[in-house]
Write a structure and sequence with these properties.
This protein is an alpha/beta fold. The protein has 13 helices and 14 strands.
Length: about 375
């Protein structure tokens, strides 16, 4: 079949990870053309030569168009025989003013059941389907490193939605004076220093304490092939987020046999449960900060979770003191990812859906 994809492919965002899907569809003999949006990070990507070939491919008619983005970013391709929009959002529902953009499409793909429900709460006329993200199979060949310090790792943008304030406050309060544990944070912020990022979320008492537990920040963008080595340093990955559409770093760490702690709210609960990790309880739903609404106006007046900080402390303490259970949940995490969430598995599912679309169109695109 012929497929044309329009979206970001050259950065660290979740949307850009769809490149793995289209590279695999091309490997299976489908004619894939990629028209990238202009959003690039200065990082090395896996399979860059294959990606480059797809970017240079002419669009072959008739074709199915797949476009990624949110609301106003999405436009249908009038020359395509079928238009699919790939989108996501981190709140309990999508903004009302975006509905008209989604209703242009024949079908919408979202990465999680959480997102599917958020879209279904609005008057979306077309089919909305969950197509999860996957993990590159090379992750599973890496083995976790052993070291003396129990290491919590958190990965994500330096924004309020990720719950950095909750994580840092909970960790410092719970492990004050403990030198057998560390918190590592992988993020990227061009404006603030590592010290500024930590101190903005500490209480005055903690800022002046003499026995602060270890906190390390890796404030840089990493090449795609380097990410497994980062996860290898961790015993447990924690993301106490206020809202996630999927949260790929959790899935990536699980592929390496590293269990996770995360909020019991959002797209990640599709693949994180108490069998493979630990869920943080939420005390309420609330509107996000005015600061983040200025960054993304779509968040205004929509609902996010507020994780319970005492529960974050309790779960981190439990994980630190039950290392055998950490290892067991790590094994089950990896088994789950290998069985369901590799990119090859996701490509199987997508290929089946695209074949269904082609048959419904009278096989005109095969």
């Amino acid at each position: 079949m012929n497929i044309c994809y329009r979206g970001v492919v050259h950065n660290c965002s979740g949307y850009a990870q769809l490149r793995h899907l289209f590279i695999r569809l091309a490997r299976r003999g489908h004619h894939v053309s990629i028209i990238p949006f202009n959003s690039r990070d200065d990082i090395k990507l896996l399979y860059s030569q294959e990606l480059k070939k797809l970017e240079n491919n002419d669009v072959k008619k008739p074709y199915i168009s797949i476009t990624s983005g949110i609301g106003p970013q999405l436009q249908i391709d009038p020359e395509a025989v079928y238009n699919i929009g790939h989108s996501m959002f981190e709140t309990t529902e999508i903004p009302e003013r975006w509905v008209e953009f989604y209703n242009q499409f024949d079908e919408i793909w979202v990465p999680s059941k959480f997102c599917e429900k958020a879209f279904d709460r609005k008057n979306i006329r077309c089919r909305v389907s969950t197509i999860p993200y996957g993990v590159d199979e090379s992750y599973i060949t890496h083995e976790k490193k052993s070291h003396d310090l129990f290491t919590f790792l958190s990965v994500g943008q330096w924004i309020d939605r990720k719950g950095w304030d909750l994580l840092i406050q909970a960790y410092v309060a719970e492990f004050m004076g403990n030198y057998n544990v560390r918190l590592c944070i992988k993020t990227h912020n061009d404006i603030k220093t590592n010290e500024q990022m930590i101190r903005e979320y500490l209480s005055t008492e903690c800022r002046n304490a003499s026995y602060m537990p270890r906190i390390m920040i890796k404030n840089q963008k990493l090449d795609e092939e380097s990410m497994p080595f980062l996860y290898q340093e961790a015993d447990c990955v924690i993301v106490p987020s206020r809202g996630e559409a999927f949260c790929l770093p959790l899935l990536e760490s699980m592929a390496l046999g590293i269990p996770v702690i995360t909020t019991n709210f959002g797209g990640q609960v599709d693949f994180v449960n108490e069998d493979v990790g630990w869920l943080i309880e939420i005390k309420q739903l609330r509107h996000l900060s005015e600061r983040l609404c200025k960054i993304n106006a779509g968040y205004k007046n929509l609902w996010f979770a507020e994780p319970e900080i005492d529960d974050i402390k309790k779960v981190m303490r439990y994980v630190f003191e039950h290392k055998d259970e950490v290892r067991e949940k790590g094994k089950r995490s990896q088994e789950l990812v290998m069985g369901t969430y590799t990119w090859e598995k996701i490509t199987d599912y997508v290929e089946k859906r695209l074949n269904e679309i082609c048959r419904a169109l009278g096989d005109q695109n095969e």
